[in-house]
Amino acid sequence: MNGDTAAQTPTGTDLTARGGVGGPALADRPSPALPGQRDPAGEGAPGADAAVGSAPGADGSIPVPPPAPVPPPPRPAWLRGLARFGYAPAPAATLAERLVPPMPDGPGVTPKRVPPSPLLLRLGLALPEPLWSWLCRWAGWLGPLAVTLFAGLLRFTDLGSPDAIIFDETYYAKDAYALWHGGYEISWPDGANEQIMGGGPVPYRSNPSYVVHPPVGKWIIGAGEQLFGMNPFGWRFAVALLGTLSVLMVARIARRLFRSTLLGCVAGLLLAVDGLHFVMSRSALLDLVVMFWILAAFGFLLLDRDRTRARIAARLTALGDGGPDAGLAHRLNLGWRPYRIAAGVCVGLTCATKWSGLYVAAAFGLLTVLWDAGSRRLAGADRPYRWTLVRDAVPAFVSVVVVSVAVYLTSWWGWFASSTTPNQGGYGRDWAVGRSTDYPWIPEGLRALWHYHSTVYDFHTHLSDPHTYQSNPWSWLVLGRPVSFFYESPKQGTAGCTVNECAREVLGIGTPLLWWTGVIALVYCLWRWAARRDWRAGAVLCGLAAGYLPWFAYQQRTIFLFYAVCFVPFLVLAVTMLLGALIGPAGSSRDRRIIGGAAAGLVVLLIMWNFLFFHPLYTGETIPMDDWRRRMWFNTWI
Predict the structure, then answer these.
(1) How large is the average pLDDT for residues 362-374?
(2) Please, which pLDDT band fits residue 633 given cuts at 50, 70 and 90?
(3) Is the pLDDT reported for residue 246 higher than 70?
(4) Alpha helix positions (H), 398-470
(5) Which of 199, 426, 592, 605 is deepest in the core (most CB within 10 A)?
(6) Where is the composition biased (Pro residues) (predicted)?
(7) Between helices 139-156 and 129-137, what is the axis angle to 10°?
(8) Residue 212 φ/ψ, nearest 5 degrees
(9) Taking a C-beta distance cutoff of 8 angstroms, is the pair 85, 582 a contact?
(10) pLDDT over 50 (residue 181)
């Protein structure tokens, strides 16, 4: 189900003109009474020839005059004030449209024949009608795919540079190789990095190694090594692929979230040119993999939300007049929900890459339950949270938590399958062999894994060794202390240096103008969520909070800015929502839209320029030292 068909839009009506990001959201609130609405009992709707003062009927009764139209409630003062700036409120929507606003384009939504674009005609570009209609119908895929192609070209170009093991690649590239060749991580001999980079045989051995992260991210990194060899391109390939695919996902997610193909493409473009996402896509570290599974889980939950609400709308239409029905809203069984189970699988894969996924499981589990409560309230339930707890909480727990636990345990299959002979299997695999326990019914493998995890938890919570590039999460959003993944100072005549002194660096830092705009966008989203009850802003904030706020509980721990890549897609979605408000809803005046669109376009262009300006620092390009210094805007960046 991709959201482009009329089956997901019960009315088949295009609501693009009913508002944009800045307009009133089709929120989960009961629709106001509409003038002339038919009485539920089928009465009070006299014929067109009935009028006040009509003659008595055959039985001597006097016809009851039709009720006077109910005037619409007065608009709030703030809404009247916005009208001076070209704002027009969205027309009232039916309950079905409020449950599932139609997508802006796609098969079943876009007509088979689309009139030519006046803008293209003015530019002298007249495409054949079949081609133009096909492009309009499939714009929801063609636009995001074009942005993804752009992101892929950026990420895969010269992916093997720097031709070195940079930063924590020294752990994960080798652990990945060991997993694919033995099923568990090993301890490597001294000088292993030099042997690997020298192109000689990989010094693999069977001695187990103590590692503190689950295996899924390393299995993924190792897939690239299996395809392209034990070299920088090989161990970066799979991560670059996930980074590229995440651009496609965020474009499609933004399109579904904001019901705008344009904003979807903007979101994809912004993620493509974020510096931290770009650097992490070109490094064999685990955090980009964590981000990918978080984003995938969010996308599946969004699909589940639309699918479930479409089913509710269909039931209301099939069993009544399509309006709210308290009885149906209370007893409604939301049925089989494959997308939510898929979200649980992705949450499990997140946890099986890094334990920070545990917070994502809690946040997304709560999010899907609140979405169900909103759906039942809109359908007419008078106590939506009570009925959601009764009917939806347990299935949600099973789909997100139980499924993710099963996926997590399965991810350790290589460790479980290894030998229990000391020093011949995964680290700690032999711990429970012959050891007495109060729980003999628990298999030895699970007891050994539990003990292993307890030591890993102790490691994570007490990791406080100082590091040059560690940072406090308070400084992340403003990019207070980036991380240098790689640095060299080549002299003239070496590594492409043409002046007395040069610099080569891979700096893990976001595109500054994008992140600083993101701070403003987060304030806007907080306002939209708290004051306007906009569920879209709440969803974006939930995803960002799941990846960001938990780190404040570990401020004494050694942590780094690049952990923030996990919530970069949600920061991009927040900026996209702000840009959509800047453009204005489709009902706004032409001048308002032109000015707002020009301002939003200028912001995007400045962010792209900023990315290009810092591009040499993202790729390890050799540049004169003076050029490097011009990019060190703050002392804390050095």
Answers:
(1) 92
(2) very high
(3) yes
(4) 403-411, 413-417, 444-461
(5) 426
(6) 63-75
(7) 70
(8) -120, 15
(9) no
(10) yes
Give the number of other Cβ atoms within 10 Å of residue 519's Cβ.
13
Contact 572, 270 (CB under 8 A): yes
8-state DSSP, 315: H
Length of the chain: 638
Rounded CA-CA distance 471/478 in Å is 12
Percentage of residues in the chain with pLDDT exceeding 70? 86
**pLDDT tens, position by position, 100-135:** 888 888 888 888 898 888 878 888 888 888 898 999
Region 383-399: what's the mean pLDDT?
87
User: What φ, ψ does residue 186 adopt, rounded to 5°?
Assistant: -125, 165
How many Å apart are CA 156 and CA 164, to the nearest integer?
16
Q: Which of 219, 242, 256, 332 is nearest to 294 (CA)?
A: 242
Phi first, then psi: give them for residue 483, nearest 5 degrees.
Answer: -120, 125
The backbone torsions φ and ψ at residue 35, rounded to the nearest 5 degrees and listed phi first, read -55, 135
Window from 211-220, 273-282, 380-389, 424-433 with minimum mean pLDDT: 380-389
Contacts of 355 (CB under 8 A, 6+ apart): 213, 214, 456, 460
The CA radius of gyration of the chain, in Å to the nearest whole number, is: 29
3-state secondary structure of 180: helix
Contacts of 6 (CB under 8 A, 6+ apart): 12, 108, 109
**Strand, helix or coil at 125?**
coil
Spatial contact of 582 and 599, defined as CB atoms under 8 Å apart: yes
